[in-house]
Structure formats: structure tokens, C-alpha cells
Amino acid sequence: MGACSSCCADRNRSGLYEPLLQENEREAVADLLQYLENRTETNFFEGDPLRALSTLAFSDNVDLQRSAALAFAEITEKDVRAVDRDTLEPVLFLLQSHDVEVQRAASAALGNLAVNTENKLLIVKLGGLEPLIRQMLSPNVEVQCNAVGCITNLATHDENKTKIAKSGALVPLTRLARSKDMRVQRNATGALLNMTHSDENRQQLVNAGAIPVLVSLLSSPDTDVQYYCTTALSNIAVDAANRKKLAQTETKLVNSLIGLMDSTSLKVECQAALALRNLASDEKYQLEIVRSRGLTPLLRLLQSTFLPLILSSVACIRNISIHPLNESPIIDAGFLDPLIELLAYDENEEIQCHAISTLRNLAASSERNKKAIVEAGAVERVCALVLNVPLSVQSEMTACVAVLALSDDLKPKLLQLGALDVLIPLTDSSSVEVQGNSAAAIGNLSSKVQDYQPFISVWDAPSGGLHGYLSRFLESVDTTFQHIAIWTIVQFLEGCDSELIDLIVRSPEIIPAVRQLTQGLDSTSPHHQADGDNMMNDESEIVGLARRVISMLSQTD
């Protein structure tokens, strides 16, 4: 605040103000000097101190305005609190000055005050955006920097974002993002990032021409600018229409983001992987990331000890793995072991979900890949963990086992590893998805196997055994569950294992339930009426399978 004190004190003592100042202005100068000498004990946001500052701010004398602006800037540098309009109005008035020094100091003060949540709203409500936009157009770099910094702070409040987007601020912000001054560039890209958190504002940003600017600044030497631009593009890529636009116009985007995954900044690496994750919602980008050699840096991030890096990279590889053509390249790049290790990452449920979901995707369309996943130890790890992980992870794990169980060659291995011991208890899970996935996995395992002893050994246990599961599902009101159970029984009967067939026949619950299903469902039940034609199709299949079971059993008598 030295500059402000000397401005007021020196000129006052020299007498230069004497013939020019109004009486109230002379008193305000004297009072302000007194308050500044005791600044640690003075509240400048109310009472006489604020009145003294306001008198100088509203003066026609530019020197007094400079003193007021400098005082506001220094005071707010050290003391930020919620203020009322009596404090903000003189600062906003000073913003409209034609004097560069007044503009610079006033915008700095307003930027400081805009750190406070309540102030963010009040500044915009009192019309602060218009003078800030004018100052962004100033040829003075200091004024630009402060004005953009203030806009950046204001844009962190959700209620302000749309107002800023509609105020005309985005075009000058986008232009200033290319500034040669790194401070201006940093503030401008930070402001653009803050505007990317809603669909409407992202569209306004795209319309303002921000995309090519953000992409070009990915190569900035400044890690903050890299971070702001990478994160902004990641948010923009959430929208399908924006991904299409990016694909059409920004041919270097993927390579730039892959390069940033080798940044020396952890936050830049993390955001680059997240941006690629969002882009990989589309098939084109799923393929392009692999073709552009993005797997190597992703694998390195996946093996990090830093949770955000692990999360961003595993989320990215999960999306990339959706494309069938990427399954083998991902496996060949060495992802299986790290993904299987992450199944036990109990610090973060989302990481576990992404890891197992990726393994399921990799197993989707190739017998070779299914075999590689099993040989890598995925099933052992799932069996060891699945009963004690969160429901969301259980759902993904059981779905993965169901996919692996489609392989006739791998079924004996899965049964040998004890898959039934964990799948059967999960058919009685509190989660419908976990129940269905577990039952589907059992059904897949039951088809075309040579040895049914693993099924016989779990007939009564654990958790009520195979017998309890089949009985519950046959008696369920859910037609999907009925269908899985009756189809599984058909597989058992087709397997012609006399011991297993005898257990089915002697069950006091299974055969009566099957006979009930041969009669069809009650057409007046709410469940039946709600699902309409799909329900009728399911019912027809269930009735057919139930009648087939009765017919097959009659032939074994």
C-alpha cells in the first residue's frame, strides 16, 4: 500500500491538492491516511473508513481515484470477506475510469473480492461484467490480466456461468488465451475452463471459436495452461456433437494428448488420460488412440502409485477396450497383469469396476483372449474377492465370469477353480444385477460339459446350493430369472448325468415349479401387464422350455 500512501501524503503536504479539492475530499484524504496508519485494526468495508474511500473513488480528480483504487487493491489483497453493495459500487465505478492505473488497481481489487462466494454473485448482479469485458479489450497487459483473472474467479460460481456466457465475454477470453503474456494466457484459459461445466455453456464456448485455441495451447510450455486446456477439452468432449466436431477439425488432438501423458506434471498427465477417455466414447477415437501408440503411456500410468493417474488411465483403457479390434492389441501390450492386480484395489471402487469391465470387454469376441485372461489368473482373483467387494464391483465381476463361461474349452477350468462356490451365494444377492449375472454364469457353465460332478457337489451348499438357487428363480416373479433357471435345467438334462438328474427329480420344489410354468403366467398380474409384448414373448419361451423339461423327465422314467 506504499504507493497509495505516498500519493495521498506527498501531494497533500506539497499543497498541490489544496486549490483543487473539495472540503469533503480533503477530509477524506486526511482520514484515509490516518486509517492506513492503523490498517491492522481498521475495517475498511464499513463506516467512516469506507466513506473516506468512497469519497475518493467518486471524485472527479483522477489522482484521488488512483489512491482509492490502490487502497482497495491492497486492502483486499490481505482481507477478503463478504461485502455489500456499498463496498462494491465504488470499486465498480472505478472500473469505468479511462485511466489505466485506476483500471488496473480496481480490477485487481474486484478480483480479490471475487474469491468470496457471496461476492461473486453480487458483483455480477451489480453489473460488473460489462466493465470487465471492456477492460479485457484494453491494450494494457496489466489491465487485461486483472480483468481476466476476475472473470475467472466469477466463473467458478455456477449461477454466474450462463450470465458470463451470454455477456459477450467468451470471444475476448478466447482471443486473450493466445496472449503473448503468460499471465494473461493463464488467466484466460482458466476462465475458459470454468465455462465448460454445463452443456449450454460448452456450446457457447464452441461457437466462440475456443476449440482450435485450446487445442493449439496444448503445446504451451506452461503446465498450468496445459492443464486448463486439457481439462477444458476433456469437458467439451463429453458431448457427442463436440466429439464429432473435434474429429472433423482437430486432426492433431489425439497425438497431442498422448504426448501430454508423458508430462512432468501429474495433473496434466491425469487430465490428458481423462480427455482421451471422453474422446474414446466414440468408435473412431477408440481405434485412433491405439493406432497412435497411446497404449504404452496408458500402461505406464496404470502402473502408477498415484490414485488419480490410475483412475484416469483405467477409465480410458476401459473405453478403448470396447472396440473388438482393440482387444488383442491391449492384451499384447501387457495390460492383463496390471488390470488383474487392480481388481484388489479396495481404496477405490471405481478403479475396481473399470478394471474388471475392461477384462470383460477384452474377453468378448475371441477365444484366444478368453484363454489369455483365464491363464493370467483373472478367475482366481475374482473368486477370491467377489464375495467381499461392493455390489457394483460384484456386478461387473459376475458379468465377466459369465462371458468367460461361454467358452466350452474353459468351462472345466472355471469349475475347477471353484466358480460355483462364489456364484451360488451371489444368486441371492440384494442386487438384481448381481443375481442375474451370477445365474447367467452358472447357466453358461452348465452347457456342454463332460463332468457334472462340480454341480452335484454344490447341490445343497453353499447358501442353499444349486438346488436353492434353481428353486428361487423358478418361483420368481421376474421372467428373466425364470428363463435362466429353466434353461439351465434343460442343459443339465441334456448332459444326461444320472446322479444330477436324480437330484432334480427328487426335489420337492423344482418339479412342481416347472409344472406351474408349463401353465403360463397369470395374465392379470401387474408384472405381466406392465411389460406387454416382451413379457408375452418371454412367457412363450419359458412355457416351451418348461414343457420340454417335463417331456425329457418323462423319457427318463
From TrEMBL:
Its main location: membrane. It is found in: Vacuole membrane. SMART domains: ARM. Keywords: Lipoprotein, Membrane, Repeat, Vacuole. Coiled coil: none annotated. SUPFAM superfamilies: ARM repeat (SSF48371). It is a lipid-anchor. ARM repeats lie at residues 86-128, 127-169, 168-210, 209-251, 252-294, 293-335, 334-377. Belongs to the beta-catenin family. This is Vacuolar protein 8.
